[in-house]
Structure formats: C-alpha cells, structure tokens
C-alpha cells in the first residue's frame, strides 16, 4: 500500500475516533431531540458534488463539524422514544472492527471468522432465550426484516405441506393462505405480509384485550372457520403496553389447526434471559419461528436483527440458491435470509453478549424493567398524569386528561430537551410512550426526566 494512502487511513480513523468521543461526551448535556431540521441538514451537507476530492481526514472533519445539530441523542440515558436501545461499549468498538475488516459475510468458506462469530452469537442467544438449540439464526437489518424472513420461510413451508412447490410454481393458483394476526400487531407485520403477496384481504384479525394481548377464545373461534395453509402471528412485547401474548394457551390452539406459529419479539424475546421476567415468555419456545432485534434490548449499534427458525430445513427451502434442502452441516448465512453480500452485523452481538455474560444480560433486562417501574411511579405521582398500562416489561404509556393536552406535553418535552418520548394512539386516545431500552439510563436520568416533565405539566 502506498504510504500516503496508509497515512490518510490512519488519520481518518483518528479523526473519526475523536469526533465519536466528542459526540458521546456531549450526550449528558445536549438536548436529546435534534435542534436542526432535515432542511437545515440538507443545506449543511448539500450543494453540487465538488469536482475535486479531498483526503479522508478532511472529509471526517467536515462531517463532524456539520452533523452535530441534526444528531439525536439516542445513545444517551434519556432517549425513550419508539423502542430503541443504546450502544454497549464492546458492541460499538466491535462494530468499528467490522467496518475495518470489511468481511462480506454471506458465505462460510469466504469469511470463516465472522460467520463463526455470528453462529456462536446465535447459539448463545438461543441458549439465553431458551429456544430450541438447533434453530437457524439469520442476522438481518432489524425486526422488520426478521419478521419478513420468518414469514417468507413460513409461507414456503405451509404451502409445501399443502403440496405446493412455491419456488417452482409461484403464487398463481396456489392454495389460499390465511394469515392470522392480533389486532395490536406491530406495523412491520403488515408490511412483511405485503412484500410476500399476502394482502389485507388474506388477513384474519383476532381481537385483543385491554393490553393488546390476543384473546385465546377469539383465536379458537376464528380458526374453527378456517382451513388450508395457515400462519398465526403472535407477539412478545406490544410496543405501547409491553404486554406479551399468552403463548401457553395460544400456540397449542394454532398447532391443533396445523398452523405455523410466528412470534414477533423484536424487544420482548429478551425477557426470557431474566429469571424474574421469564414467565412473560412462558410457552414461547413452542413456536415455529421468532423475530428479534439486537439493536433494541441488547444495545448493539444499528443494524442488527435476528430471524430464528425452528427447523433449518425450512429456512434452506425458502432461501438456499439451488442445492439440497436437507444438507445443513454446511449452513451458510445466505441459506437462511434473503441477503447475499452484507456486513458482519452479528459480530457486535457476539461482543455485547461476551461483554455482558449470561448474568449481565439478565441484569440488563432486570434493570430496564426496574427503570420502567420507577418511571411509571414517578409519572403517576405528577398531578394530572395518568399511567395507562400495567408495567410488566420496559414500556410506560401515559397521558393527561385531554388528547390536546397530551400532545402539547409531548411537543413541550422534545422542545425542552432533557428527554425524548414519542406520541402514540391507544384505544382511540392520544398517549405518550417511554420505552426504557437503554443500558445507560440511571435513576439520575429518570429523576431529571421527571423533574422536567413536572415543570412542564405545572406550566
Ligand atoms: C421495533 C419493532 C419491530 C420492527 O423492528 P425494526 O428493528 O425497527 O425493523 C417489529 N416489531 C416490534 C414489536 C417492534 O417493537
């Protein structure tokens, strides 16, 4: 390598290192919500592409000087919007190595280090979550793609069982497939269905209870009227309430009818890693596939989701390009997900798991739940605030007496800057949601947040 390029690379990495630390060091004091709009940032970074290039260190310094006002303090301790984790130090550092290594991690023979690390991370996770240890684990970008990957596998498998070879014959003329979902499913389920040629008309929507859990009696009644290939989609962790479906009741009902059962557990699956939260996931291991994220509750950097399928032969049947479905001693990453070339996004998951250890993952889950309980108690003690849900996991939903007041409070919290929560609609009314998903959040963060909200509510 020529010396100038070598030097440019080292100085570029040093500049990025410094800029990264400057951002991370600012997290405790900066407003959590960005101060700049998209238009501001388009102006900052836009204009015509210059004719001449510049060296890496200048590029990084230009980025660092312009980016700051448009960055959101997601890795800090007071970002509670959506369901988004922070970044564990070992996972962040490992993620830098992933880029430096530049391993195209679709194939075991090309990139043995990263494929092995992902396979081990997958095994560790199956063990922590008490899922069948022979399952396939595909690393994808997130919960959306994990749901898509699992449901593509499910569609292929239930059609195959009905005697229909999807790879050969396509969807036209295939036996009609019913897709059975809960009323409070995540929006990514409908998107995944849409990508798979499963339309709204193919959905059977099952009523849920006041916390968004599918009603077993309603599932039983609906399945009594359905026949043919069936997929039932359940949920571990409803985004508003954090509630978990009653897997022990629901999965056997679905299996009696020959359905494939998929569990969307983008953040909820991780409850199984804690002795005190595990009961929420009871019976979940009976399902046929599970989707989860490492970039939420495990706190690895974006992007990292996992598509888990009980029988690897079903994954291979859906995704392997040619070859024998039954040979899975030589399972390649591209045999179990839609992707070919990709970054080794499982390496930061390996690093987070190694850094935390079994006990560390359990205590992280416990801490996130304790934080949610503390936040809910604090919010409930503020005059005028109602906590809407029973806090079984990491989600806290609250509101004021009127929808307008609730929405105004949401906007005021973002403008004030101490913390970020996001708005939601629940049972026809406006609410605000705190997701306690970050390893960084301390009692001090919760106290600062409550003080800020108390001040805003008092006006
Ligand atoms: C976040 C979430 C998803 C989507 O995951 P992404 O990582 O954003 O793609 C799906 N289901 C549930 C329950 C979620 O919370």
TrEMBL record:
Superkingdom field: Bacteria
Q: Which organism does this record belong to?
A: Microbacterium phyllosphaerae
Query: Mind telling me which Pfam families this protein's record contains?
Result: Pyridoxal_deC (PF00282)
- Keyword tags: Decarboxylase, Lyase, Pyridoxal phosphate
What PANTHER family does this protein map onto?
GROUP II PYRIDOXAL-5-PHOSPHATE DECARBOXYLASE, MIP05841P
* UniProt cross-references to Gene3D superfamilies, sorted A to Z: Aspartate Aminotransferase, domain 1 (3.90.1150.10), Type I PLP-dependent aspartate aminotransferase-like (Major domain) (3.40.640.10)
So what family is this one in?
A: Belongs to the group II decarboxylase family.
User: What name does UniProt use for this protein?
Assistant: Glutamate/tyrosine decarboxylase-like PLP-dependent enzyme
